[in-house]
Every structure is written in C-alpha cells, then in structure tokens.
Specification:
Layout: H1 3-16, H2 22-33, E1 58-61, E2 66-67, H3 73-85, E3 91-94, H4 121-130, E4 132-138, E5 141-143, H5 147-154, E6 165-166, E7 184-189, E8 192-197, E9 204-206, H6 212-227, E10 230-236, H7 253-267, E11 274-277, H8 283-287, E12 298-300, H9 304-314, H10 318-326, E13 335-338, E14 346-347, H11 357-369, E15 373-378, E16 384-390, H12 393-396, E17 399-400, E18 403-404, H13 408-421, E19 425-429, H14 430-433, H15 440-446, E20 457-458, H16 459-467, H17 472-487, E21 498-501, E22 508-514, E23 521-527, E24 533-535, E25 548-550, E26 556-557, E27 564-566, E28 571-575
Parallel strand pairs: 1-3, 1-19, 2-20, 3-4, 4-10, 10-11, 11-12, 12-13, 13-19
Antiparallel strand pairs: 5-9, 6-8, 7-8, 14-16, 15-16, 17-18, 21-22, 22-23, 23-28, 24-27, 25-26, 25-28
Helix pairs in contact: 1-2, 1-7, 2-6, 3-4, 9-11, 9-13, 13-17, 16-17
Length: 580
C-alpha cells in the first residue's frame, strides 16, 4: 500500500469508527477489496475528464424487461442490445439482477448470485464484454427473508449484529422518510423481541453500518461485481445508510465519509470503476455527494424529470431555464447523469422550491388525466404529500395542460433531445426508447403503482413492432438512435464541455455548449411549445463570419439570414464545426 493511500484510509476510518482499531480495520478492508491475486495501483487516479466522452450514453433496464418464456431474459436483453443499440448507447444499467423477495429486486436475498429467473453470471459478463455495465449496490437494506436476516433472528454471528435496532420510545419524529409505512418492525429473535429499522418497507431491513463488519462485507460484494465486469457502481439509497436516533438519519457525516472511502478504493483499483450516487432529494443535498471531488464521480440530475415534464406540458421553459441557469457545472472529474425516466416514478421532491405549488398541481392533474398515478410520502408531522408521479414518460407527453393534440411524438422526442444536449451523461429508460405505454394491467395484478412503468415486452411482439415503420416503437427508437449517433460525433457534447443557458423566448429552452478544446460550439435549441417560434440569429450570437449548420437536419445558415424558425417541438443543434 502507498503511504498516501494508507494515510487517507486511516483518516476516514477515524471519522467513521473512532472507537475501533484502525490499523486492524485497514488491513481487513484491503483484504476484502484486494483479496489474493488482486493488486492496487501504486498511485490513485487523479480527478480529470478522462472517464467519459461525448460517445457515452446509458440504457436503464431490468434484466427481464424483455422475455419470451423460452430463453433466458438476459440472453434476450443481450440480443436486443447488440441488434438495436450497438453504436447507439455504450453503457447498460441492469437493475438488481440478484435473488430478491420484493420491490422488483431491491429487497436482495443473496448478493453473490444472479437470479435464476434471469440467467447466471456468464450472461452478465457477456453483456459487460460489449457495453459498460452498471450494477446496483443495494447497501442500505436487505431482504427480511434472506440468510443474513434469518441468522440475525437466530442470533448467529456475524449477522446477529448486522441490523439497526431502535425502540418505539426513541425520538424518531425527525427521521426523513420516502415511504408512508411504519419505520419500525417488531420481530422475535433468540434474544427476545426487537424492533428493526425499515426505511423503505418491512421486507427491507436496514443494515447497521456502525458495525464495520457490514462495510467489509459490502466491499467483498463490490469486488465480486468488479471481477464480473461491472464498471459503474450505483449506490442505491446511499443517503440513508447511517442512522442516529433523534436525527433526520439522512446525509449524516458518516454517510459521506463512507462514500469517500469507496471512492478512495475505486481510485486505487487497476480497473476503471465509476461511482454513481442515487439520492432523490433537493438540489443542494444531491450535489453534496460530489464532495470535494472525493465522493461520487457522478450524481443523478433528479430535478430534470419533473422540470422537463412541466416544460413540455405547459409550453414554457421558464422554470427549466431558471433552474439550469443556476446550476453549477460539475466539478473536474465529476459529471451529472441526465434522464427523464427510470424504473421509479418522476420524483417530486427534487422540484421543491423550483416549481410553484399551483404548477405542480397542474402537472399532477394532467398525469392523472392521462391514467397516471401518484405515490405519497409521510412527513414528520404525520401528513402526506406527493413523492412521485407514476406514469410512462411517453404517455406523459400525450397531452399538455390544455389537452391532447397531434404533437405527441414530437413532444416526446423533444423532451429526450433536451437530455442529450445538457452537460452530463444522458441515460434512457428502455421503456422510453421503446415508447412503452402505461401498463395498467400490471398495476392491478401486482398491486403497486410503479408497475405502471415496468412493462415486460414479449420479445417476438416487440420485434414485430420494431419491424413496422409506422409503429410508435419503431418511430421512437429510430429517431432516438439517429440523434444519439449524431450526438456522439459532437465534441461540444462532452459531459464536461462548457455550458451557458440562453435567455430566449420562454417557449424555447436554449443552451450553448463549447468543446473542451474550444474547436466546436453548439447552440442547442428546443421549442417546448406547439407554436412556431422565430429566432433572430443575434439572440444566439451566430457569428456572421462563420458557417453554421443544424447537425440534426443538415440545414446551412447563411451569413445574411435575418431569422430562422422552430416548428412546434422542433430541436436544433446549430454548430460551427459539424462532424464529418
């Protein structure tokens, strides 16, 4: 171990576990993360922009989003990726692919196995051979029906000290909750009745990271993932991992120190490993996980889904623009992960302070009118408020505040093009790329709101849809693929390229991007309304001496042009250096 690594690891352990033997803990951590046959880098990677480029984009999918009841779903997913998305995206986030008991994979019962319903480790590594693979480290909780919790109930070490206990008499009112279920669950153990902490559900029992053996076991799991080809680690629900009675039990200092420890380990791996934190919270709290360039490499840009949804439904980019203008660029060596849809709903907490209450109400009403659902969260005073909107994003684009119109497809493509244009790495949920409608049957059958956006395609049916040029699935995937291929050729769309928010007609969301070497500029313009909007070239500073072209259409803009137009929901990528 280098002296720099040892010193930094010891400093972090003192902050997290002040009452433990830090020399012994350091040795245990190194052995867990670099077992026999593995080696550290002599020097840690320094923060920089070499981890990603404009060619990077990510698909988000379940392992069984595509099935046919004959082949392994992971084999079908690999076939779909190679057949339709090679050269379109280069990263794949496979949502939890382990054995589980609830929450569609997020109540993990065995971290060391792949669910037999999906396939096995060779199927995972086969995908990792062709795409940058992201996996979920569900580190806050485990299944109540798994080996770890059963051992806890029976008092078997080491799991007898793996779970966080509290009592109903404790001061739990300040605890921040993402759910409305009771926080504590009473269980019978070999030591008598106990109450265990359940942030998300009573089948998801929170781990107790005050016990360093929990952290060390998680490091063994991370090592397994890296050895199987995982290169992006999504830290699920990481904000909740450290609890203290009488506090909010979210974003505590020890939580940030643990993320810093994981970052330190990743910086010294011979493999290139990126940490992504999943914290569906307001902006300041979310950005805190960048730390001082010593925590997450990337964070989800959680305000984007509700703000883009509002812009497209309202026909004004005012709130999206004002938020973006106030957003700081990601620190050197860090990046935003931009998206509109995922396996979860459209989070409303990140919109706090960004959208007026009446605008949020109009958005919620519109989603409900389209058949969408609303999930609630519990407040400390016992009240409830909307936590997320449950609706396929393609369906959410079917109507504006004023009603349905003929612009559904154009509106949806515009919403996704905004994601492609912004500073950061774009990510797309499989059901957005496939224009999947709301699955009401799944909601009724499974009894959960989120099932509305977790459809499982029958692969022969999907292939038939994609072969039909008139289907929504074919039209959306074709146009999204075309734009992503164009995007990958524009150096001004590097995740860390310069970005400036333009002040234009409120119906147009506009940003200026400039490549790191300043060789290319792009004015990315997005008409979020059903109106034709005229733009004066001076508003976007198109220098007359240069030739400008719309990379999306090939249209050339002459030096003497007095104005140009944006059709309803049209997007333009106007550049002075189009890729050849």
């Amino acid at each position: 171990m280098s002296q720099n690594f040892s010193r930094r690891l010891t400093d972090l352990l003192i902050r997290i576990y002040p009452d433990h033997d830090h020399t012994e803990l350091s040795e245990q951590i190194v052995q867990a993360f670099w077992p026999s046959g593995h080696h550290q880098r002599k020097q840690g990677r320094k923060p920089g922009n070499g981890l990603w480029s404009e060619r990077d984009s990510v698909l988000i999918t379940y392992g069984n989003s595509i099935e046919d009841q004959v082949h392994k779903p992971l084999d079908l997913l690999h076939d779909f990726l190679v057949r339709h998305l090679q050269g379109v995206v280069n990263g794949v986030h496979i949502l939890p692919f382990f054995p589980f008991t609830s929450d569609d994979g997020f109540a993990v019962s065995d971290y060391y196995s792949v669910s037999a319903q999906l396939g096995d480790w060779p199927d995972i590594t086969r995908i990792a051979d062709d795409f940058h693979l992201m996996s979920d480290l569900v580190l806050n909780h485990v299944s109540s029906q798994g080996l770890w919790f059963n051992n806890y109930l029976q008092g078997k070490p080491p799991h007898d000290r793996f779970f966080f206990e509290a009592t109903p008499e404790d001061d739990l009112q300040p605890v921040v909750r993402p759910r409305t279920t009771p926080l504590l669950r009473q269980v019978e153990t070999s030591r008598g009745d106990r109450h265990v902490w359940c942030t998300f559900s009573h089948d998801q029992i929170d781990l107790d990271f005050r016990n360093p053996e929990v952290l060390i076991e998680m490091l063994r799991i991370i090592r397994l993932h890296i050895d199987k080809g995982v290169r992006i680690l999504r830290l699920d629900a990481v904000a909740f991992i450290w609890k203290e009675v009488g506090t909010t039990s979210i974003h505590l200092p020890q939580t940030h120190a643990i993320v810093q420890l994981l970052r330190l380990l990743c910086d010294f791996t011979t493999e290139t490993v990126v940490l992504l934190t999943e914290t569906n919270v307001p902006r300041t709290e979310n950005l805190s996980y960048f730390g001082n360039r010593n925590e997450a490499h990337a964070v989800y840009n959680f305000p984007l889904p509700p703000l883009i949804l509002h812009a497209m439904q309202s026909g004004t980019a005012r709130y999206l623009r004002d938020w973006q203008a106030a957003m700081p660029p990601a620190q050197l060596g860090c990046a935003y992960l931009n998206f509109t849809a995922s396996h979860d709903g459209i989070g409303m907490r990140p919109a706090e302070g960004l959208l007026p209450p009446e605008e949020k109400t109009r958005m919620i009403d519109t989603v409900r009118r389209l058949g969408g659902l609303v999930s609630m969260r519990a407040l400390p005073d016992g009240r409830e408020e909307p936590y997320e909107l449950n609706c396929a994003f393609f369906e959410a684009m079917r109507a504006t505040f004023d009603g349905e119109d003929q612009f559904h497809l154009a509106r949806f493509i515009c919403s996704q093009t905004i994601v492609m244009s912004l500073e950061g790495i774009p990510a797309f949920y499989i059901h957005s790329l496939l224009a999947t409608p709301n699955d009401h049957e799944a909601v009724e059958r499974r009894g959960m709101n989120r099932a509305i956006n977790r459809h499982r395609w029958h692969y022969p049916d999907l292939l038939s849809k994609l072969a039909d040029p008139g289907s929504d699935q074919s039209r959306v995937l074709s146009e999204m693929s075309r734009r992503l291929r164009i995007r990958a050729q524009q150096s001004a769309f590097h995740p860390n390229a310069t970005q400036f928010t333009l002040r234009l007609d409120e119906r147009v969301f506009g940003i200026w991007r400039q490549s790191l070497d300043r060789s290319q500029s792009i004015f990315a313009l997005h008409n979020v309304s059903s109106d034709h909007v005229q733009i004066n070239p001076t508003e976007v500073n198109l220098i007359a001496e240069e030739t400008w072209m719309d990379a999306l259409t090939g249209e050339v803009f002459g030096a003497n042009m007095s104005e140009f137009s944006l059709a309803p929901y049209q997007c333009r990528w106007i550049t002075n250096a189009p890729a050849v």
